[in-house]
């Protein structure tokens, strides 16, 4: 993919078009999963029996997402976060700046954005987690490529060990009330309370979100941190190897896609069938949807990178719009939260709990259309997306010039 080679942007830095395109796909794709959290009760995210329908089109929506998208889009973001971390550090060192100072300023402000997003807008924030894990990942950036991959694989093993505690707890009958709330079949009264809450006003939702999620980043760091750190290390390795730079021969991308998806896709199909045949029982979800998917996600994510870079046509209209969406991924991620909470929560249109699972996806496609339609024209007039500009200005301690086109 020749378009993936670095290009000079309007503010003197070199960008990788391949990273922007992959990031654009990720920012669109992650909404396929997040929309369930925006529009349905919490347990429905993993368990379609909990709410939103589990037959026909609703089951098909769950099945496609489970096999192809769930965890993979988040993983793409994590790979790209690690790659970008490495690029920013390298550019800082090349310009004579302290890479550590630049990095930790960026992470500190990202943490601030993430906490504001988590506490004030939506409980599904990922920015806080990325900021905390990114602080840890920085110290590992100088490892050789093969050690990045080896350490990442070991961390995936640690994640599987942590995740295995969930089906073990179910088997032993421990913590069933909490697990039913998140992946099982909560009592109808609890579902009704959650729906009533999110159909209420902002000043009712805000204290409830604070009460439940004030300290969420800490247990999330412990439980998901090893997996996320592994993905960031894999992203650094993918950048150094030329994979994320779009520098591999097309035959190599095709070979990796065949190998990665040839192994992982059939395994995902088998797990999906197991969970469906078990009628989404709590143990089947804990084992088949939660634990056994962890070692399958990295090859699925690598396959996604290969597929995107194989399909992206240099100079194509869709490729350019995806790249623009990726350059503004921070803004577009926050924009989807603002749009979707307005649509689904009571201080907006109050659609929470009113749509079945498959009916959520026209909303997704409409948001996609908005992101793809506005990102490229914005970057034709401005050097950064709005939140990218604010983040950059705060991290550098001075307001950055905004007007003027970004690179094409």
Note the main attributes of this structure.
18 helices, two-stranded antiparallel ribbon, mainly alpha, membrane, 408 residues, 1% strand
* Share of helix, binned: over 70%
Output mean pLDDT.
Answer: 93
Shape: globular
Instruction: Tell me the number of structural domains.
Output: 1
Pfam family, one: DUF418
InterPro entries: Bact_Transport_Assoc, DUF418
Protein name: DUF418 domain-containing protein
Keywords: Membrane, Transmembrane, Transmembrane helix
Question: Can you walk me through this structure?
Answer:
The protein contains 18 helices and two strands. The protein is mainly α. Strand 1 and strand 2 form a beta hairpin.
Q: Topology of this protein?
A:
Layout: E1 6-8, E2 14-16, H1 17-39, H2 56-69, H3 72-94, H4 99-121, H5 127-137, H6 145-163, H7 165-172, H8 176-183, H9 188-198, H10 202-213, H11 217-240, H12 250-277, H13 282-291, H14 297-311, H15 317-327, H16 329-344, H17 361-381, H18 386-396
Antiparallel strand pairs: 1-2
Helix pairs in contact: 1-3, 1-15, 1-16, 1-17, 2-12, 3-4, 3-11, 3-14, 4-5, 4-10, 4-18, 5-11, 6-11, 7-13, 12-13, 12-14, 15-17
